[in-house]
Structure formats: structure tokens, C-alpha cells
Amino acid sequence: MAAAVSASASVSVWVPVAAALLLLLLLGPAPSLGVSFSLAPNNRKCLREEIHKDVLVTGDYQISDQPGLSAHLKVTDSSGHILYSKEDATKGKFAFTTDDYDMFEICFESKLPPGHFRVPDQVVTLNTKHGVEAKSYEDIAKAEKLKPLEVELRRLEDLSESIVNDFAYMKQREEEMRDTNESTSARVLYFSIFSMFCLVGLATWQVFYLRRFFKAKKLIE
């Protein structure tokens, strides 16, 4: 009897954990996909993405080597603030944390000195991650000495927080849009009323003016 109770208690403990792990697999972010493109000499290509506030962003890049060509990498926000910059970039990593919801831009620029002949395009490979994807849970597990199950639960907690923040942002945007629509509707209503009074006033003035004009011409009594 005691063994049965113990087994039942063990099952009841593992069921929520298994459900949490299943939820993590279903709602967890998809593996990040790298972007690869060609960069012609003396050309510039940029990638843009909108990212929420207080989000960790990491990136790995690799640029093929071509004789005489050099590439410059720059990461900026919409205000032009430089978050990362690298001259003669070939391979490396970058990371930053966003201060506010903004549009961020990653630009690669290829430079060919004058007098050089035409050379093949450089191939740029970029892999960016942000939010839960950007965190290294292996390092967290080593630093805090967490078990594999505890690491997965930590990841699930971070993912849940990210989802809650996304919903909160969507709710905030919906409230802002509703306030904007209500304000616009009120302004249109007031303008319509003002226009109506102006038209009524103009029509009344025209009636009196024409009446005086016709009386002056003795066309009416």
C-alpha cells in the first residue's frame, strides 16, 4: 500500500514537469536561421528589424576573403547611435541589449581601393538571435550548477516572461491605437459641426445679401 502511494506521489510530481516541458517544445522559439547574401565591391547592404525594450541581441557573422576587398560592419539604431562597429571585418560576434523599442539596422559595406581590378563578390553569412534564443543556458547551468531539468524550467520561465511581455506590448499598442482613433473621431466630429455652422451662416448671409440686392434693384418689394 505504501509503495502504491509513493508511486502515485511520484507520478503526480512528474506530470506538471512533463506538461511544462511539452509546453516549452510547443511554444518555444524556432531555431534561428542564418542569412547569406552576396556583397558587391563598393556596395552596401543592410538588414533591419524591430526589437522590444530590454532584449538581448547576439550575432555571428562571417565574410569571405577576397583580394583587395575590405568589409565594414556597423550596427545602429533609428537615431544613428552606433551599437557595434568593426573595420576590416572577417569573422566575429557582437552583442547588445536594447534600451527601448526601436528599429535596429545591421549594415555591411564593401570597399575596393582605386586602381584595383574587378574582383568577385564577397559572401556574407549572418546569424542573429534575440531574447530567449540569445541566452546561453549552458553557461548559466555551469555558473549556477543547475541540473538539466532545472535548466529547461529556467528556459520555460524566460519564455513565459517573453510571451507575457509581448502580450503586454500588444495590449499597450491596442490602447494607443484606440485612443488615437477616438481622438481622431472627436476632431472630425467637431470639425463637421464647425463646418455645418459655417455653411448655415454663409447661406443666411447670402439670403440677406441677395434680398437687399434685389430690393435695391427694385426687383422685389
UniProtKB/TrEMBL annotation:
Keyword vocabulary terms for this entry: Membrane, Signal, Transmembrane, Transmembrane helix
Pfam families: EMP24_GP25L
Location of the protein in the cell: Endoplasmic reticulum membrane; Membrane
Topology of this chain in the membrane: Single-pass type I membrane protein
Chief location bin: endoplasmic reticulum
Keyword Transcription regulation in annotation: no
InterPro entries cross-referenced by the UniProt entry: Emp24-like, GOLD_dom
Keyword Transmembrane helix: yes
Domain GOLD: start-end pairs: 44-195
Stretches that traverse the bilayer: 188-210
GO cellular component, one term: endoplasmic reticulum membrane
SMART domains membership: EMP24_GP25L
UniProt superkingdom: Eukaryota
Name of the featured protein: Transmembrane emp24 domain-containing protein 10
Organism: Callorhinchus milii
